[in-house]
Design the sequence.
């Protein structure tokens, strides 16, 4: 997994509440058995004017000029600013895969749906929760200042305006932060406890044998 | 010891290890696997040269992509077939306790077959790469959906890294009115607390109305806990739970059964256990529900009208309402019962069990689907449900009324197979999500109970099933 320490990135706004994972990556693209290549179909139904199907040449499809990510000023954005309950709906990890594949490395919203929030960390994507009022102000500033950038410092747990005019703190679980900062594979970390898992399992097998058995 | 909630007990029973920041390594008893969220996980295992930690925890089926017609022709959509074949190959290579592949007579929606086979047992942690895993909480399991990286993590380690959620109690007391079902209860709850109302919580559903539900009804309620933002929903063990499990293929028998039951009986919240949030609902106030928007919280009763965004003070909500009404092609103040439909879908892991099909059949018996309905279909949740329904003659009732009687699977719940809405088509659906495009690009979904969907198919528009004759 790619490490995440400090990110100085362009911010793109997505001003809708309750953006669900079906909207982030529509189901017709879930038939892939790979983890990559979802970026061109991120927000497919909003981004293009036609209906997307797997196998289409996305470069030839008509873009929806009203959709924020299609505006020239947001090209190359690596930080997505969103509204509450972002990532609700299905558990598909294709949603963070698509966001990461598109080029996002961090998301900022007043709240995220649980499973989606978890999935982000496994893919080097940092979801940051900020109070509603701060998010409101960020939406305002992104609109007001073309080229608006933020500096996200994960070790310091801060989000700062690139010109240094404002700095906001954010919370993140210590363990998740540790994994993300060091780009660690969680399976490898867990397997350090293999003996403990084995012992737990043996005890469980003795006490509740009906939970086991081929 | 301080009194514990059911969730506290289930959590404590599965903690293997705790990191300094409170992140726990939780042991997983049952891992349900389907074709959409597993290929990348198996691929990851292969690449890392890892094995499945405990194959007898894995129960797998193909459900999301499988067609519901012409099974003898196989899966004609090439991308769907690749995914289903990938699952076949992965199970062959890695092993499982049970696999119900495409066309097996026990195949079906993963959340229907787990309980049906007795593969879901009280006190288990149950996970699946699917958000509606919360369904299994009806059996006093700690059951929740996970992403593909977590699927791989469970396959490799039998554990998951988790932070404990807070406790919420949704207490539903009183008797449900005639024609009011578990689906209406859960939509009512979501309307009350909102789609983010349960975020960060595990919800226990309790009270006399919940205890009065069958296991099927409890599954319907827990199924939609995720639509209220909660990862897990659960119901305590009682006689209904134990009766349901008795004699199921994977349930214990003999002396093990008695020992198991003794343990299962402890799986309930202690008196005076502390909940971080309590929501009380009077069951007598619950009416048949119909969603009008593009989020399950955008719900009204069948007596209501489509709401007016003008009256909403919160600007973010107002905008969401306006956008939803445009998408849904609805005008404010329209009576819910004046909404005319194009299609009717009875199915999904929310409402495709025998009890649901019986309720729908009772409504349509001896009647005909309205001429404006282009397609009314019933998709049983599993091959077992289908066979039982046919034994009772329910398939005849539906067919005689003009419904299509299909093979089991997820079908038009998410439209990954050929079953879908065309742009602009309006559907009464017993599924769980009315998001934009969920049932097909541009399709318009109204979530309802099976009885309400059945009545709408006959009338051609929504009707109050309490008045049904
Ligand atoms: S029926 Fe629908 S909600 Fe249930 S598992 Fe299938 S796709 Fe998901």
Sequence:
């Amino acid at each position: 997994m790619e490490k995440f320490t400090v990110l100085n990135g362009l911010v793109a706004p997505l001003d809708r509440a309750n953006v669900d994972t079906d909207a982030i990556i529509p189901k017709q693209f879930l038939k892939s058995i790979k983890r990559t290549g979802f970026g061109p179909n991120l927000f497919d139904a909003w981004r293009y004017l036609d209906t997307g199907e797997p196998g289409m040449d996305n470069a030839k499809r008509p873009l929806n000029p009203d959709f924020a990510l299609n505006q020239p000023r947001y090209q190359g954005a690596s930080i997505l600013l969103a509204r509450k309950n972002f990532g609700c709906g299905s558990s598909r990890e294709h949603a963070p895969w698509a966001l990461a594949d598109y080029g996002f490395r961090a998301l900022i919203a007043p709240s995220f749906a649980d499973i989606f929030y978890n999935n982000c960390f496994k893919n080097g994507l940092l979801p940051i929760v900020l109070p509603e009022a701060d998010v409101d102000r960020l939406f305002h500033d992104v609109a007001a200042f073309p080229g608006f950038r933020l500096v996200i410092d994960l070790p310091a747990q801060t989000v700062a305006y690139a010109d240094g005019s404002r700095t906001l703190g954010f919370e993140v679980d210590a363990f998740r932060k540790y994994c993300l900062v060091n780009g660690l594979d969680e399976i490898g970390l867990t397997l350090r406890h293999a003996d403990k898992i084995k012992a737990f399992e043996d005890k469980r097998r003795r006490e509740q044998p009906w939970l086991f058995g081929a | 010891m301080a009194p514990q909630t059911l969730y506290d007990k289930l959590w404590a029973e599965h903690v293997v290890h705790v990191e300094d920041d409170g992140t726990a390594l939780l042991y997983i008893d049952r891992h349900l696997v389907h074709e959409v969220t597993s290929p990348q996980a198996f691929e990851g295992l292969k690449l890392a040269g890892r094995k499945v930690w405990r194959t007898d925890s894995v129960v797998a089926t193909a459900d999301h992509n499988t067609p519901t017609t012409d099974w003898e022709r196989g899966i004609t959509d090439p991308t769907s077939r690749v995914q289903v074949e990938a699952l076949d190959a992965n199970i062959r290579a890695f092993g499982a306790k049970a696999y119900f592949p495409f066309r097996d007579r026990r195949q079906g929606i993963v959340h229907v077959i787990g309980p049906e086979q007795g593969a879901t047992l009280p006190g288990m942690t149950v996970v699946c790469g699917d958000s509606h895993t919360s369904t299994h909480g009806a059996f006093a399991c700690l059951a929740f959906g996970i992403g593909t990286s977590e699927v791989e993590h469970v396959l490799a380690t039998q554990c998951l890294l988790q932070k404990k959620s807070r406790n919420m109690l949704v207490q539903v007391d009183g008797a449900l009115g005639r024609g009011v079902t578990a689906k209406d209860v859960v939509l009512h709850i979501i309307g009350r607390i909102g789609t983010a109302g349960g975020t960060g919580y595990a919800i226990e559903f309790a009270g006399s109305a919940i205890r009065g539900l069958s296991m099927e009804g409890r599954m319907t309620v827990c199924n939609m806990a995720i639509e209220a933002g909660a990862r897990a929903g659960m119901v305590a063990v009682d006689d209904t739970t134990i009766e349901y499990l008795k004699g199921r293929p994977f349930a214990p028998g003999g002396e093990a059964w008695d020992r198991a039951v003794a343990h299962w009986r402890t799986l309930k919240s202690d008196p005076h256990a502390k909940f971080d949030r309590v929501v009380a609902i009077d069951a007598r106030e619950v009416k048949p529900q119909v969603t009008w928007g593009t989020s399950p919280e955008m719900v009204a009763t069948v007596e209501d009208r489509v709401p007016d965004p003008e009256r909403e003070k919160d600007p973010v909500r107002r905008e969401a309402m306006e956008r939803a009404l445009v998408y849904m092609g609805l005008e404010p103040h329209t009576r819910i019962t004046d909404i005319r439909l194009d299609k009717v879908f009875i199915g999904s892991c929310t409402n495709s069990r025998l009890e649901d099909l019986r309720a729908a059949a009772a409504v349509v018996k001896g009647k005909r689907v309205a001429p404006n309905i282009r397609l009314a279909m019933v998709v049983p949740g599993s091959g077992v449900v289908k066979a039982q329904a046919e034994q009772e003659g329910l398939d005849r009732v539906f067919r005689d009324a003009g419904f299509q009687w299909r093979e089991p699977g997820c079908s038009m719940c998410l439209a990954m197979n050929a079953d879908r809405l065309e742009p602009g088509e309006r559907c009464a659906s017993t599924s769980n999500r009315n998001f934009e495009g969920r049932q097909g690009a541009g399709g318009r979904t109204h979530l309802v109970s099976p009885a309400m969907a059945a009545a709408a198919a006959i009338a051609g528009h929504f009707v109050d099933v309490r008045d049904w004759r």
